Amino acid sequence: MLVRVRAAEEARVRAIDAVYGSVVAIYGNDRQGGGSGVLFDPAGFALTNHHVIAGSADGGWAGLADGKLYRWKLVGTDPGGDLAVIRLSGKDKFPFAPIGDSDLVRVGDWALAMGNPFALAEDQRPSVSLGIVSGVNRFQEGSGLNQLVYGNCIQVDSSINPGNSGGPLFNLRGQIIGINGRGSFEERGRVNVGLGYAISANQIKRFLPELLAAKITQHGTLDCVFSNREGGVICATLNLDSPAAKAGLALGDRLLAFEGVRISDANQFTNLITTYPAGWPVEMLVEREGRERELHVRLSALPYERLVRGANPQPERLPEPKQGKAKEAAFPLHEAGKVRDSKLNQEMAKGLIAKWRAMENGVSGGFEAKAEIRRGGQVVGWQMLKVATGGQVSAEYEIDGLRTTMLCDGQECSKNSQRIARGKAMLDPHFAQGIVLSALVEDNALSGWGEVALDGSDKANGRLCYRLSVADRATSEQCFIWLSAYDDDGQPRIELVKTGVGLDDDEPIASTLCGSSFTERRALVHGLAEEQELEIVSAVGERVATVRAPSIDGSVYARAIEFAQRRTVKVFGAGIGRNAGYASGIVVSANGQIVTAQGVFLGADNLRVTMADGQTHSATVIRRSNELQAALLQMDAATPEFFDLSKPLTVAPGEWVLAVSNAFKVADGNERLSANIGVLSMRTPINARRGLLDFPYQAEAYLYDAITSNPGAEGGAVVTADGQLMGMIGRVIESKSSGTRLNYAVPVDVMAKFVHGELAPTSAATSNATTKADLGLRLFSLGGRRGPAYIDRISPGGPAAAAGLKTDDLIVSIDGQIVRDASDFRRIVEALPVGVEVQVEVKRKNELLSVRITPVEEK
User: Fold this and answer.
1) Packing angle between helix 429-441 and helix 342-359, nearest 10 degrees?
2) pTM of the prediction?
3) 316: confidence class by pLDDT, cuts 50, 70, 90
4) What is the pLDDT of residues 341-351, one digit of tens each?
5) CA angle, corner 656, sides to 652 and 657, nearest 5?
6) CA 167 – CA 83 distance, rounded (Å)
7) For the chain, what is the mean pLDDT?
8) Taking the CA atoms of the chain, what radius of gyration do you get in angstroms?
9) Assuming Cys at both sites, which of 202, 272, 573, 843 could form a disulfide with 601, CB separation 3.0 to 4.6 Å?
10) Gap between the terminal Cα atoms of the chain
11) What is the arithmetic mean of pLDDT over 652-681?
12) Is the pLDDT of residue 575 over 70?
């Protein structure tokens, strides 16, 4: 039992450690007040409550667990659901936590509430309270007209007090499952009584695109009322001019399902619809006279009271320790539902496009794709789509014998050789595909037309999406882009899902579902139900050609990098002076053998290896090679992720190579290792030095122009573009002929011989010398075997004298092994092979020196 308790405690501590840095303490411009938030994106985007930021107008200060304050600015806010997004500045990369799936939350789950209750965190470090989920799908009424409503929220008994508002509710996997915002306080004043409420993560996900679009968002309505009657949920009142009525909803219809959720109670429906933004396309299943009907409609917007400065409602006063009372709310005047900062909105759109490019495999610069057009499985035509630089787009297609050719040079458009307005050209669904893709694959491709903007939240092909628009300034005509926010498993992923020339059934809508690969299979559809009209299938199953030479896009090699990252580890040991106590390593066997570079860090008693999943294991040195400047480690854990050294490899100069390592210890914990790209120069012997001494490497090496000659990179993996291991990154060295740093790798075939023990051992770790070695020096005897390894005497004409060592020098390491005291010195020297040169590092006053010494036989 005690073992299980301790294991549970350790799991909670790990979960807290993982997300601790993401929690934000939020203050106004005067650094007063108090509220909380949580970073969900490394670019500085954070979630909080609307009522936390409402009193601070457009910005203020934010404190993080590092003890520092950062400026924040408002991005978007949701008065209806008490949610807001702010952006912190002052740091290139912020710690953040992922948003989880609140549909998986169950009563009894552990829940961690974190934040700044009562503004106690003067050092900005958040408070943590542990409890359980005590209820799901709760409803808390709002304040004012349609504001601060908590629908389908999570109820917890974790302590939520004034100041916790806006802070995260985590599960023990470190995922944000809600944003804390309400508590039942009134019966006992301002003291928590174990009833707190958090906005659910899935509601947050649906509103995030709206908030990132720099809007004051609105919640959706069907403009009707459902009541419990006759054993069902019946439409009791209905605005006959509403979109729902136009979509086919009628008085007396029985509601069976809403957005895939079976409805059994009118309150359940009310609770659910509050979690959807205005404009969201919903699917309803209704029954009329015994027949079921499926309806599709976009939700109308619920109105707010006019948002005026100083008049916003707040459900609870935020503590003001220095002044004793809350400030009056002040909020920027703006029309709800509209973009309030177009420049910020366009910045958000460009950021999403950049993320899409990083994840897309292949579409960059320009492309050409030919496809068959089918109807009901029969070929009825063909399509050729080309996208080039500068907004140049052409679409040529033939359907049922009618051929159409459309062109754009980036400014003017034509259809069948006749000039037409750009706005009119955008309404052709085949041509619009090219316009949209031109905007995606090239920055400023359509700058002469208008800007790409983030419209907000939407759904396409059943997935939550960011909807972007491309507008023609002259005609205000638009075409649209749907980029997914998550994949089918709920993981963040930006993919092109759909392009379109309209949004609603009463418009000439014609959209193209793109799926995961635009150039393979698409479908021309119409309406919110996305009913298929035509199927468009690539004639060759892949991109046919490029309009121009493809740019070098690192995302093309994402699979190879990810493959190498899972098989490359971080190695941590001892550091001395400017010699780093960390490096990289390559896993080369299922039983946990690791190849790394030679270095001082290997002399540590507690040598540690951190795997790609963040798990850390201890390791020991099996053997070393002075000729390869390499070492073989044994980790105390098995792993299925390793490089197979037996696979043959052929790689030629000029081919792309990828290097994966922990250069400068940039990657911490389970962060992915750094990757570099370059081309292979040659395989050749190297003539180099390390510092002032010749580098003893005695094998051929791969030279390339990927920059890897950096501390911590040594021991990392160099792979081909398809992920095959080429070699191990070598130590930081310089060319003797040019004085420049060399980027090199030990070839995989040479590594294999070392791993299999086919190279003669020459290092101190494996020497079986029968004669004792002597370095020609003696240590101070003061302190005995545990005394520091200071040199007392130098033998005239001996190895130490020849190397330039002096009395009072402190011996730091020998051949990469740390010398902590006289006992270490004797043990290491006794194992040295006579006549084999070793590297000795000494400290002379404040300087660290490295020399080469060849031991002689002890007389």
Assistant:
1) 90
2) 0.61
3) very low
4) 889 999 999 99
5) 95
6) 11
7) 83
8) 33
9) 573
10) 62
11) 74
12) no
> Any idea what the Cα angle at residue 302 is, between residues 297 and 304, rounded to 5°?
165
Q: CA 55 to CA 329: how far, in whole Å?
A: 4
Please name which of 718, 405, 420 lies closest in space to residue 560, comparing C-alpha atoms: 718
Residue at token pair 């308790």: 5
Which residue in 700, 675, 677, 670 sits closest to 687, CA to CA?
A: 700
Structure tokens at 579: 């010699």
Q: Which amino acid is at 300?
A: S
List Cβ neighbours of 740 (8 Å cut-off, separation of 6 or more).
734
Residue 315 has pLDDT above 80, yes or no: no
For residues 649-658, one letter each, b for 16 or more C-beta atoms within 10 angstroms of the residue's C-beta and e for the rest, the string is eebeeeebbb
3-class secondary structure, 345: helix
Tell me what pLDDT residue 347 has.
92
- Evaluate if residue 553 carries a pLDDT over 60: no
SS3 assignment, position 561:
helix
Distance of CA 42 to the CA centre of its chain: 8
**359 pLDDT more than 50:** yes
**Whole-number Å distance between alpha carbons of 784 and 859:** 23
Who contacts 827 (Cβ-Cβ below 8 Å, separation ≥6)? none
Angle at the Cα of 98 (from 94 to 99), degrees rounded to 5? 130
Binned at pLDDT 50, 70 and 90, residue 284 comes out as very high
Residue 279 above 90 pLDDT? yes
**Minimum mean pLDDT among 69-73, 270-274, 406-410, 705-709: which range?**
705-709
Give a three-class secondary structure readout of 191-244. Answer: CCCCCEEEEEHHHHHHHHHHHHCCEECCEEECCEEEEEECCEEEEEEECCCCHH
The sign of the CA dihedral 283, 287, 293, 299 is negative
Q: Could you tell me if 452 and 353 are in contact, meaning their C-beta atoms sit under 8 angstroms apart?
A: yes
Q: The tokens of 296 are what?
A: 């599709």
**What's the pLDDT at 256?**
96
Contact present, 312 and 79 (Cβ < 8 Å): yes
CB 652 within 8 Å of CB 715: no
Using DSSP's 3-state secondary structure scheme, residue 638 falls into coil
pLDDT of residue 712: 84
Please give the angle made by the CA atoms of 452, 454 and 457, to the nearest 5 degrees: 150
- Give dist(CA 599, CA 815) in Å, integer: 8
**Which of 157, 87, 95 minimizes the C-alpha distance to 126?**
95
CA torsion through residues 733, 735, 740, 746, sign: negative
Q: Which residue has the tokens 């020096």?
A: 777
Helix (H) or strand (E) holding 355: helix 342-359
Could you give the strand order of the β-sheet that contains 733-735, starting from the edge strand earlier in sequence?
693-694, 688-690, 733-735, 741-742
Whether pLDDT at 331 is above 80 = no
Looking at this protein, which amino acid is placed at residue 95?
P
Backbone angles phi, psi at 673, to 5 degrees: -65, 160
Query: Which residues are catalytic, by number?
Result: 51, 82, 165
The number of beta carbons lying within 10 Å of the beta carbon of residue 148 is: 25
pLDDT for position 309:
41
Alpha helices of 693-795 — where are they, by DSSP H? 748-755
Residues constituting the chain: 859
Sequence-separated (6 or more) residues with CB below 8 Å from residue 20: 65, 114, 125, 126
Are the C-beta atoms of residues 840 and 825 closer than 8 Å to each other? Answer: no
Residue at token pair 């912020």: 94
Q: Quick one: average pLDDT of 687-708?
A: 80
Cα 563 to chain centroid, rounded: 17
